[in-house]
Specification:
Number of helices: 11
Distance between the termini: 51 Å
Bound molecules: adenosine monophosphate, zinc ion
Radius of gyration: 18 Å
Helix content: 40-55%
Structural class: alpha/beta
């Protein structure tokens, strides 16, 4: 089965989206999210693009121009969120301010802030779903890291579609590339000559994640696919809360599991 067929199958099997819904694709400028948007569009879904300009110098400039070119070529409506304008400083600055108070990894901080922005802006744009470019290797990494931490249940609500959360302020997230190996995504993006930035984010210096990624890269395709097969088999059984109670953050009023959401918790002085 080629990657197009596999992605179609994932969309149908896990009921990720339908053709009436408005899907906001989180476009980073990298291969994964670009392929996600390219294929959703090719399959006839109603998509719009959303890019967060992280204000990180040359790297961000390259990402922004790749996303603009891609959306222009494919006639996809693009929304750009300028983090410096909206939040007062670049992601690098926000991160170092947070790290001066809390010892947290770069990617963890960036991930929390991006998710917060995506949910809020997708809701303002009346999107039904948010699509991200996470691929099988990303998901296998996260699943293994949670196992190594001794907490596989941290993976319980992930999957090709967010599970167990139903709240009008929460926009479900879908990952159409969940079952696609990173190498296959790269090859596809090259075959289709998509305008993509292949460099990794200069701030992705989370040494533990890199170590796990390097370990995964030593495994065969079959073994990596099997990690996700294991995830599918155990994920239903390790779910603790079948119906996650959503509260609204006391500071920003965004949906949260706790009184204060993860993003506000990070930014608290
Ligand atoms: P990452 O955590 O950088 O591996 O990114 C995972 C997914 O988040 C990507 O596939 C995109 O869908 C989304 N994403 C990452 N960075 C951005 C960005 N700057 N703007 C919009 N979406 C992003
Ligand atoms: Zn908050």
């Amino acid at each position: 089965m080629n990657i197009e067929q596999k992605i179609k199958q994932t969309i149908q099997k896990y009921k990720l989206c339908n053709k009436k819904e408005k899907i906001l694709v989180a476009l980073s400028g990298g291969k994964d999210s670009t392929v996600t948007a390219y294929l959703l569009k090719k399959f006839g879904y109603r998509i719009e693009g959303f890019h967060i300009d992280l204000g990180m110098g040359k790297y961000s400039e390259k990402c922004l121009s790749a996303v603009k070119k891609f959306c222009r070529d494919l006639k996809i409506k693009l929304h750009i969120y300028d983090i410096k304008k909206e939040m007062g400083s670049s992601m690098c600055y926000l991160r170092s301010a947070i790290q001066s108070k809390k010892s947290l990894k770069n990617c963890a901080i960036c991930g929390v802030i991006k998710k917060w922005i995506l949910n809020r802006e997708a809701r303002k744009l009346k999107a039904d779903k948010i699509a991200t470019g996470h691929n099988l290797d990303d998901e296998a990494q996260t699943f293994l890291m949670n196992i190594f931490k001794g907490s596989p249940e941290l993976s319980a609500n992930s999957g090709a579609i967010t599970r167990n959360i139903s709240d009008s302020k929460f926009i479900p997230r879908i990952k159409p590339l969940f079952y696609i190996l990173e190498n296959d995504v790269r090859e596809y993006s090259q075959d289709e000559k998509l305008p993509v930035v292949y460099e990794k984010c200069p701030c992705a210096l989370d040494s533990y994640r890199i170590q796990v990624r390097e370990f995964l890269n030593t495994l065969s395709r079959k073994n990596r696919i099997n990690i996700i097969k294991n995830f599918d088999k155990v994920s239903k059984r390790i779910q603790k809360d079948k119906n996650i109670k959503i509260k609204y953050c006391e500071i920003c009023r965004e949906p949260s599991r706790n009184e204060i959401c993860k993003k506000c918790e990070l930014m608290k002085t």
